[in-house]
Amino acid sequence: MKGECYEAFLRDLSRELSILPDKPEETPENTLKALWSLAKGKPLSAELARDYEPEELAEDEYAQLKACVQQRLAGMPLAHISGRQCFMGLELIAGPEALIPRKETELLAGAAVDVLRGYDAGGTAYVIDVCTGAGNVAVAIATEIEHAQIYAGDLSEEAVVLAHQNCKKHGLVDRIQLHSGDLLDPFQVLDLKGKVDMITCNPPYISSAKVPAMANEIASHEPQMAFDGGVFGVNLMRRLISEAPDFICDGGYLLFEVGLGQGPALEKQVSNMPEYGSVEIVSDAEGNARVIVARVS
Predict the structure, then answer these.
(1) Which of 117, 222, 225, 293 has the fewest CB atoms lying closer than 10 Å?
(2) How far, in Å, are 18, 169, 292 from residue 255 at the CA level?
(3) Which of 28, 7, 41, 15 is nearest to 78 (CA)?
(4) The overall pTM is greater than 0.70
């Protein structure tokens, strides 16, 4: 029964499943294993489900698996069905409250971790993570950098609730302080100006004109405020570049993710500001600029 059932569902997924390029881990087999594990009461992300060995299903478990497969083929994101997404090797809680963490954003989190490892904060490293969403970047940094104290914020109160769940899941509620508000506004009342060692941000950067053409799996299930970046897709980033130096100490860093083709113009804007002493680009495997790393002079 198990083998026949597995092969039948795998054939359906292999034939009908549409996999987004920014979720390469969601192969038909990993998707099926994640949904199978969910039916057994053990939710897993596609990435962690790779090593899951399917077990025998009871009748009600089979019915749940069948319903989940149908949901996935109808376009519901796998992370919304399973409630899990892997990011930087960390299993996170996922949901419609925030953008599902993507592999491409691991470039941002990885660059932040690399900078902080070689950075002498003289003790605690203070980090602000704006547009925190599910809290994935904040949780990744706090996990890797034990001396980091992080202040994370998001315009969406629902996203902040989800981020808190991930902080709690990974035992980081004492090291990640969460706030709701617009960009850096929530941190104005805190005694942080000129004292922050790093600001990170994965902003919305899709231009509004391109939103209607986005895959239905994204447009119909993930919050628009998390990906709609305005007329040119760079509204929030331009604000961030201008406002960040008020918070960052001399020698501190601003890191933010950019959309395809946006890197050169944003690098130029940063370079033209006297507050920044240097700017570097982190590119993806295809050579596309995806992260700006700017050092405050």
Answers:
(1) 117
(2) 32, 26, 5
(3) 28
(4) yes
- CB-based contacts of 210, cutoff 8 Å, min separation 6: 233
Q: What is the pLDDT of residues 33-64, one digit of tens each?
A: 999 999 999 999 999 999 999 999 999 999 99
Q: How far apart are CA 242 and CA 226, in angstroms?
A: 21
H/E stretch holding 111: helix 106-117
Report CA torsion sign: 170, 171, 175, 181.
positive
Nearest 5°: phi and psi at 295? -105, 130
Are 76 and 91 a contacting pair, CB within 8 Å? no
Rg (CA), the chain: 20
* pLDDT tens digits, one per residue of 266-279: 999 999 999 999 99
Strands 248-257 and 125-130: unpaired
What DSSP string runs through 142-164?
A: HHH-TTEEEEEEES-HHHHHHHH
Is 87 part of a structural domain of the chain?
no
- Residue span of the structural domain in which 32 resides: 2-82
